[in-house]
Specification:
Chain lengths: ~350, ~350
DNA sequence: CTTAGCACTCTCTTGTCGGGAGTGCTAAAT
DNA sequence: ATTTAGCACTCCCGACAAGAGAGTGCTAAG
């Protein structure tokens, strides 16, 4: 496995994978022979194929079908053989434009970029924004939301907006709120929400908090609003693109399973979570991905940064037979685009 | 058409429709005869069926198949024959709970309710919130969003939150913003956004605005932020439920078309728009619905109110063969639930 | 007016068959 | 010692036929 595969076998294997990616059909020896300009006869190719099968890289759906790359085969292909396609200028342009023109609300931008990515790759695209806690505050504001509710709006440096609801406190006047706002903003700028909470709790223990009624009020409200951490967000765009793949069309049951999975935030989370920790792009082929019910799909995902820390990841979901040489650069580019975009804000 | 159908024919027709709704298969004369306790023989039923076919209510997929209700048939069924099922206590309970427990951000609540509706009906559920302009302000706040951008956050009485971005104005200090906030809030409470804009423009023409620099600033910023109207929002929940319907599973092309349509906000808009104007529940059967590419699906939708004016609508999308007797009360109940919920806020 | 009877139509399933694609093996060619 | 031509073999797939099943329309009797 590790060492194996002389040059010729490698060549043949590459052709097989690429043909299979393009056609979704088992590849026969004739096809490959032709593709190599008859340098080798079908019979020879067959011998090589038999070797590749023994090595676990190829499989036969049935005796007289062509060969299909196994998951291990794809793994090997990606690790050793992949020739990245460089992106078209027009593609990178479109992506950058989408990243720039969206307004501040970060979710809008991310959604738009994700959608475009989905279209370019003809796969379903997915974004996970999973570390709201690492986001740094730019400003916050308490607003009256109903007779007995106050809404805390927090604008983060990256452009994400978070809302927290505070129940009770019906007696605060608009003027009180303004003062509290000013006070909290003074504390908040440049901190993460959990850090702000810690700071608030600290302040609450200070002497002076006990004597200034409004300040005390502000602090307890802040503490309450920040008690639980934000859960992170998930966007799925371009679901319909999975219908472009013949393997999904054929099997409606599979399709159902996948679409159901898209409705479960937690599933998507598990799917992309890994990509957040590793800086590099992550390719999970079939059973490598962490979600049992999606053992027959692949995920190509990359984390994106906000300043120094990775805060989320963006990825594509599709059949194991994906055009990795194209999709990997695409996702990588998109992720880095998001990173620089968030960096500038 | 209008007058037609004696009692017996009606009875038979109802049975046919209901059987077809339950099974998605053409219904034969035997089946109906049995269902009626052999009161009539299959032969008699066949005669009646022939009449119903002539009247345009039934059709035969092919010579020796059973009968299937036509779209006109469904229309008649809904208009004259429908026996509404009353909802289960557990269902109404679940819906009310979902409506209550969501926090203020109205989109969260609406989304949750919509999802539940989708599950209860086993159809895809769709919400359109289309009249942001009719929403009445509760409070608003300007927040620093980036070095040269300001975010206007508006909390409406119903709990919807709107964001508008104002470009430029890098030199405003937090203190300035606070003052502007206070000033604008004074103007804003209880108005719709367009009304507020009108008011602002009016103020700008007043004498005093010319002399108070900050006030002038506040007004022009407000005017700019409110220059364009909010486009309204669309949520689709429970897409996977359309895979529960055999008629969609069989025809992948159709499925693709429908899923694609779900990705187009504007399509969904057109689909539910009508329901907003008419107070009552709207049932669009197949070609009756306003979207050409969805001529083979039905929409059951109802508007929901915010105070006196209808601001959005919620509905279900499914095959023409829907269980209307169940789905109609469900949608109606859900819509009224949303109305009362928004009313209380 | 209802219904039993019957011939007829159409679909759907099952089985059979031949062609096509592709393989593996063997023996000859290089 | 490879490579390759040749060939028998396997399996899929589409076409075709046959039969069962479901349902109809019509006719004639109740």
């Amino acid at each position: 496995m590790g060492a194996g595969l002389d040059e010729r076998a490698t060549q043949v294997f590459r052709y097989i994978v690429e043909d299979y990616i393009a056609t979704a059909e088992p590849v026969g020896s004739r096809t490959i022979s032709k593709k190599m300009g008859q340098a080798l006869s079908p019979a020879t190719i067959r011998n090589i194929m038999a070797d590749l099968e023994e090595a676990g890289f190829l499989a036969q759906p049935h005796t007289s079908a062509g060969r299909v790359p196994t998951e291990a085969g794809f793994r090997y292909y990606i690790d050793h053989l992949l020739a990245r396609q460089s992106l078209e200028r027009s593609e990178t342009d479109r992506l950058s434009r989408a990243a720039e023109e969206g307004g501040t609300p970060a979710d809008e931008v991310v959604r738009q970029v994700s959608r475009l990515l989905s279209d370019l790759a003809r796969q379903a695209s997915v974004v996970v924004f999973s570390r709201p806690d690492q986001q740094v505050l730019r400003s916050l504001s308490l607003m009256r939301a109903s007779v007995d509710r106050i809404l805390l709006v927090a604008v983060m440096r990256g452009g994400w907006i978070q809302h927290r609801l505070i129940e009770g406190e019906p007696d605060l006047t608009p003027e009180d709120l303004e003062k509290i706002n000013a006070f909290l903003n003074g504390l908040a700028e440049g901190m993460t929400l959990p850090a702000l909470r810690a700071r608030i709790l600290h302040e609450l223990r200070q002497e002076k908090a006990r004597y200034d009624r409004l300040m005390h009020r502000a602090l307890t409200m802040g503490a309450r609003a920040l008690a639980d951490n934000a859960p992170g967000e998930v966007f799925v765009e371009g679901r319909a693109n999975i219908l472009e793949q013949p393997e999904f069309l054929e099997d409606v049951h599979r399709l159902k399973r996948i679409l159901r999975a898209f409705e479960e935030k937690s599933v998507i989370f598990r799917l992309l979570d890994r990509a957040i920790d590793s800086q590099a792009i992550q390719v999970s082929i079939g059973p490598e991905n962490p979600v049992e019910e999606l053992r027959d799909i692949s995920v190509v995902a990359a984390g994106y940064r906000q300043g120094p820390s990775t805060v989320g990841s963006i990825g594509l979901i599709g059949p194991v037979r994906m055009d990795y040489s194209r999709v990997i650069p695409l996702v990588e580019y998109t992720a880095s685009l998001l990173s620089t975009m968030f960096g500038q804000r």
